[in-house]
Design a protein that fits this description.
By secondary structure, this protein is mostly helical. It folds into two domains: 47 residues, Arc Repressor Mutant, subunit A, CATH 1.10.10; 148 residues, Tetracycline Repressor, domain 2. The chain is built from eleven helices and no strands. Helix 7 packs across helix 9. It is globular and about 55 Å long. GO terms for molecular function: DNA-binding transcription factor activity; transcription cis-regulatory region binding. InterPro entries: DNA-bd_HTH_TetR-type_CS, Homeodomain-like_sf, HTH-type_TetR-like_transc_reg, HTH_TetR, PsrA_TetR_C, Tet_transcr_reg_TetR-rel_C_sf. This is TetR family transcriptional regulator. Keywords: DNA-binding.
Length: 208
């Protein structure tokens, strides 16, 4: 097995386990067992568990963030925007993650949520330091679309937004099954994301 194959196997096993069980609850031994590699190979390719977590996240962030930033900058150039447009600008970058994995969008959002649930401060530091400009453009877009919101309002509402999105994506298969059986609706992942956008826009933009 080549070094590239070994590294790929570790990343593939780690992302699934991290998404399902969380960063704190997933041990390196569990990952190496799922990947069918030895523990030394994790140390060789990544150095530490924290570095492995960052590598798993950055596989998605490196594709998602530049695409999202382009969409946000196009939006910021418009004279007037609304919150629906702000959230809608993330759909194409998010669905672009299927280039990594078929379930890339769901896995990415679950991993992102785990970073907060598991209180992984170093991961938030990594994202802010590597993609701070994108986050700033997102904040600018929110403020342009809803200038009446205070900084505290923006913080809380985006926190609730993340929770809603993570739960929705973590339950995506069950929700799609219910939609099919109860309402005879065939909804793919993109359709599910577009379903939640009006709810997010209304929640973030609600009067304080």
């Amino acid at each position: 097995m080549s070094k590239k194959d070994t590294k790929q196997k570790i990343l593939d096993a780690a992302e699934v386990l991290f998404a399902e069980q969380g960063f704190s609850e997933t041990s390196l031994r569990l990952i190496t067992s799922a990947a069918d590699v030895n523990l030394a190979s994790v140390n060789y390719h990544f150095g530490s568990k924290k570095d492995l977590i960052k590598a798993v996240m950055d596989r998605y962030l490196a594709l998602f963030m530049p695409a999202a930033d382009q969409a946000l900058q196009r939006l910021l150039a418009e004279p007037g925007i609304n919150l629906h447009q702000v959230f809608d600008s993330f759909v194409a970058p998010l669905m672009g993650l299927t280039r990594i994995k078929r379930r890339g969008p769901e896995i990415f959002l679950q991993l992102l949520g785990r970073g907060y649930i598991d209180n992984q401060g170093f991961l938030r530091w990594f994202i802010v330091n590597h993609y701070g400009e994108v986050l700033e453009h997102f904040t600018q877009a929110i403020r342009k679309a809803a200038p009446e919101l205070s900084s505290a309002d923006v913080f809380w509402r985006l926190h609730f937004t993340l929770g809603t999105v993570v739960f929705t994506m973590a339950s995506s298969e069950a929700l799609r099954d219910i939609a099919k059986s109860d309402f005879n609706e065939d909804i793919d992942v993109e359709g599910l994301v577009r379903r939640v956008i009006p709810y997010l826009a209304s929640g973030v933009g609600a009067k304080p």
